[in-house]
Structures are given as structure tokens and as C-alpha cells.
Write a structure and sequence with these properties.
about 15% strand, about 140 residues
């Protein structure tokens, strides 16, 4: 009976020791993982910022490309009568600002038609192009 008790007690002690070691190993693994994450966090932040900067730069480049394309189309068809400023609003809406001679409605109509035609293919929805006209001195 004493031998059984000692054997049982010895087994319980070994089991408790094994559980303690397993818990220590789990804590050590968590600490190692946290250390690695803390060491990599600055690199991940730099990469994320570089990705955001690249996206912003590509967006600006697309806007400038549209503006150049629209300016070239206007100059090709009408000459140097207007210099459009193209911007992109939220939800993909393109905005074209044109300073137009108010005394020449036919020219204004042609400018609007050219702007609508050039940017219509870029719009994500039918009302995806806004054309803003500002009167200028003739």
C-alpha cells in the first residue's frame, strides 16, 4: 500500500512538473513571438507608408495624364482657347474646371462636349464627370 501511494505520488509530481514546464514553454513562445512582432513593427510601418505614398503618387499621375489628354484634345480641335484643370473627387467623380469666354456660347458648348467625351470613358458611373465653368473676360 505504501508502495502504491509513493508510486501515485511520484506520478502526480512528474505530471505537475511536466505541466509547469509546458506552461513555461508556452509563455516563452508567446514572449518570443511578441519580441519578433515588436522588432518587425517598424519595418511593417515603413512598408505600409511606402505603399500609401506610391498609391497617392499613382493617383496624382493619373489626374495629370487626364488633364494633359484633355488639354491636348481641346488644343487639337479648337486651338489654345482654354486650359482645363482636372481633379478627382471621392467616389471616382472627375471634375473639370474651365475658364470660358461667356460671350461665346458656341465655343463653351464645344469645350463642354470635348471635356465630356474625353473623361466619359474614365467615369465609373454616368454622372461621373462634373464640368465647372467659370466666366472670364473675352
Amino acid at each position: 500500500m505504501l508502495n502504491e501511494y509513493l508510486l501515485e505520488r511520484l506520478t502526480e509530481d512528474r505530471l505537475a512538473e511536466a505541466r509547469r514546464r509546458a506552461a513555461q514553454a508556452a509563455r516563452a513562445a508567446v514572449l518570443i513571438a511578441l519580441g519578433i512582432a515588436a522588432a518587425l513593427a517598424p519595418f511593417a510601418a515603413v512598408v505600409a507608408l511606402l505603399v500609401l505614398a506610391d498609391r497617392a503618387q499613382r493617383a496624382r499621375r493619373r489626374i495629370l495624364e487626364r488633364q494633359v489628354r484633355l488639354t491636348d484634345a481641346i488644343h487639337r480641335e479648337l486651338g489654345a482657347v482654354a486650359a482645363p484643370v482636372v481633379t478627382r473627387r471621392p467616389l471616382g467623380v472627375w471634375r473639370v474646371a474651365l475658364a470660358v469666354p461667356a460671350a461665346q456660347p458656341v465655343l463653351v458648348a464645344r469645350l463642354v462636349a470635348i471635356a465630356a467625351r474625353e473623361l466619359a470613358s474614365e467615369a465609373r458611373r454616368p454622372a461621373g464627370v462634373e464640368i465647372v465653368l467659370r466666366a472670364r473676360a473675352a
